[in-house]
Amino acid sequence: MSSAISPAPCIHRIMIMHKAQQRRRPPFFDPQKKSPNGKAFIDSHLSTTWRKALGSLPLPSTPMANSEDSRRQPVHLLLVPLPAQGHLIPLLDLACHLSNRFAAAGAALSLTVLVTPANLPLLDSFFSAVPSARPLALPLPAHPSLPAGVEHVRDLPAQISTATLVRALSLLSPDVLRWARSHPHPPSAILSDFFLGWTNRLAADLAVPRLVFYSSGAFAVSIVDHVWQRMPRREDGDGPAALTVLCDLPSSPVFPFDHLPGVWRRFRAGDPDWEVMREGFLANATGSWGAAINTFDALEGPFLAHLKRAYPRVWAVGPISPAGPAVGRGGRSSIPVEEVAAWLDACPPRSVVYACFGSQYTPTEKQGRALAAALEWSGARFVWAAGGDGAVVPEGFEGRVAGRGLVVRGWAPQVQILNHGAVGAFVTHCGWNSVLEAAAAGVTLLAWPMGADQFVNARLLVEELGVAVRVGEGVEGTPEPDDLARVMVEAVAEGAWPEMRVRATELGRAAAEAVAEGGSSYRALEQMAKELSEAAYVEMK
């Protein structure tokens, strides 16, 4: 489209196209229609046409703060989170920051969160902090493999995959469509988790943009997109250490096959649940209007540049900070945050090892014993976030380490712990939220990845950024306790690892600069809000 064409005719043209598509949409998007090969028919024509039209449109130059239509009718964003703490919390935080950015510009953002009843209490603090947000609580449709009442990833039985829950969530589409089409101000865009690529079809049915939110980093996103599109195979006779070259990515990284993202390695062709997952991941890269990623330029610049060649829009908006009080965000803790802070206050600077394997992963007995023994034998001060009921903590352990160690059961105040000057090292599973929180705090890491995207994150930390030391790999790579204890002692020794500590401190400074006014992530969030407002303006015109 020529840049010489004035905005008004372009807007008129896009709405004529939109109305014509609306007239033919009911038969065209019949959810029961089948393609010749028997798979569910998922047509991307409307979403692709809409995306291309918006992407090439010379949008109005009127800022959202000065748009009469924007003031009269706020942008309405439908949030569709994956019910898992590591996905849900950063998405809600991003929505809160977006709402604040709209308000600062003199505009309004209305938020609706799709949620099932069992997960509604998890959103209480969000709704308290964001008055413009409302829940859309819909019962989770029945699934033959999903036990009744299971609506959160952490509650899935060991033999049930996340793909099963994702497919059950996808069955909410007809109810969401009915709600949206009867709403006096239906959603003008959808922002959904990257596990929920089925929302691309939902957005197409509503003729609105779909923005994908990545709670993982740009390196991991690049690899996830690559493996779903290329489907590399482990050849017959290859063992778990067989190497896979990701030739399309910057520097062509090489990984053992078993270190590629777990959500892809568990794929089972022909399984209805996994086919929904596969189609969704493919739709993320090929059909989304834009991608918001919880990372920042100084952390993953080359991989962000790679993704910007694949997605129409990429906003690196991290590290996404807690939009409200961080205390109690993940549930109850066995030790109040004030007591943890007081205990750390009594410790010398950089003398404490913090150990945590995240909110979703439960260490095996072997891993728990190895970590406990290393903490005990090291003689170092420590805080161990043992999660859940702390079942991995050996009997009598707390008595033997009394005075120099804390064991926190339940939810640990991780952000506050990592930002305390007494903490010198972090034993981590390398989940992305933990990586970002450690990066923002400028803390060195002892990397022990377990699964998911964690091997990818560990490589970024150890080999690309030089702010971590690898101490273990999954269950098979559980370190010997005396080896782990030795590394712990080194990590908190005065004057140890000077170059690594400098790099970690510089990374923390870069993280702070990214989200400060004028920083790369600050500007990206502002651009995201502006483009959302403009897209809604185009639709209203």
From TrEMBL:
GO function term, MF aspect, one: UDP-glucosyltransferase activity
Pfam families: UDPGT
Keyword terms: Transferase
Highest taxon, organism lineage: Eukaryota
Gene3D superfamilies documented for this protein: Glycogen Phosphorylase B
Family listed: Belongs to the UDP-glycosyltransferase family.
This protein's name: Flavonol 3-O-glucosyltransferase UGT89B1-like
Organism: Phoenix dactylifera (Date palm)
Gene: LOC103706616
